[in-house]
Specification:
By secondary structure, this protein is an alpha/beta fold. Helix content is 37%, strand content 16%. It is globular and about 65 Å long.
């Protein structure tokens, strides 16, 4: 049986709901409900993850069965207030048919029931709970980059390494003892790096990629990491051991990642460090992964 990639997306990540969210925060749930019902025929503008979702859904066009990727709406709205969201999905011709409206509760509890491989939301709390329950999750950050109207169909996804694809074991040494201790540890270590929260998502992407000729594949991945030689060796050997292919690997030795991500034309970039995300969001859509030592208070 062919694998299927399932992406869960919140309504605020998919569409621009800033105006209605402000009404909710300032005037409460009843005012929000009335506003959404009164405007349910007003089509919502695309949100931060809209272009990403559009490209994800188009992946199905490259496979004979046309059912290899699914996007599911996971929303805190009620079905009543969520009607505007579904009207907008139909108007934008997005092939999204499954949805959960949780009436103010967090939808994260349904991600495992749906078999979600990636959960994207604007809610810090929802993402935190999902990732603590073993689901690759990230909080979409508003981007300062201008949205390009012209876009090809190639989906480009960029990942940080430590605390995203890999665990935070090496970052712990860097944080506690500094760069030299980190480098010394990498030279001495013969073992593979441990899996991080996004390994399973990368594996699922690889399954889709492996079924197509590389010249025809609609998915391209990049590792964009602060690591440099000699710490690159464990990364390469670990990915090889996992049987995972990364299309492009950038070992930047601490350089700012934003320009490189723009050159890669990333549709989304995942990183565990808020500063890296803030920098990257000036150039590309970015998402914060709340995992690892950098996110512990």
């Amino acid at each position: 049986m062919n694998s299927k990639l399932v992406v869960g997306i919140s309504s605020r990540a998919l569409f621009d709901l800033n105006q209605s969210h402000q009404i909710f925060e300032k005037q409460g749930i009843e005012a929000y409900r009335e506003y959404q019902i009164q405007n349910e025929d007003q089509i919502l503008d695309p949100g931060e993850a809209f272009n990403l979702v559009t490209k994800i859904l188009k992946i199905n066009n490259f496979y004979d069965d046309g059912d290899r990727v699914e996007v599911i709406l996971l929303s805190r709205n009620t079905a009543d207030t969520g009607l505007r969201v579904f009207n907008s999905i139909e108007a934008h011709k997005l092939k999204i048919s499954r949805a959960v409206f949780c009436g103010g509760e967090s939808p994260y509890k349904y991600v495992k029931a749906f078999g979600v491989d990636l959960f994207l939301s604007s809610s810090k709390g929802d993402v935190q709970m999902a990732i603590e329950n073993g689901v690759p999750s990230a909080r979409i950050i508003p981007s300062k980059a201008k949205k390009s109207k012209k876009s090809d169909e190639l989906l480009r996804i960029a990942f940080d390494g430590d605390s995203v694809i890999f665990s935070d074991e090496s970052e712990k040494i860097f944080a506690a003892e500094g760069l030299q201790a980190f480098m010394d540890n990498e030279r001495k270590k013969k073992s593979m790096l441990k899996a991080g929260p996004f390994k399973s998502f990368l594996v699922e992407l690889n399954k889709l990629q492996s079924e197509l000729n590389p010249d025809e594949c609609p998915i391209r991945t990049a590792l964009v990491t602060a690591r440099s030689a000699p710490s690159h060796k464990r990364v390469i050997k670990t990915l090889r051991k996992w049987g995972v292919r990364i299309d492009e690997s950038l070992f930047l030795g601490g350089m700012n990642k934003a320009e490189f991500l723009q050159s890669f034309k990333a549709d989304i970039f995942f990183d565990d460090q808020q500063q890296n995300i803030d920098d990257a969001s000036a150039k590309v859509t970015s998402a914060h992964v709340p995992f690892g030592i950098k996110n512990r208070k």
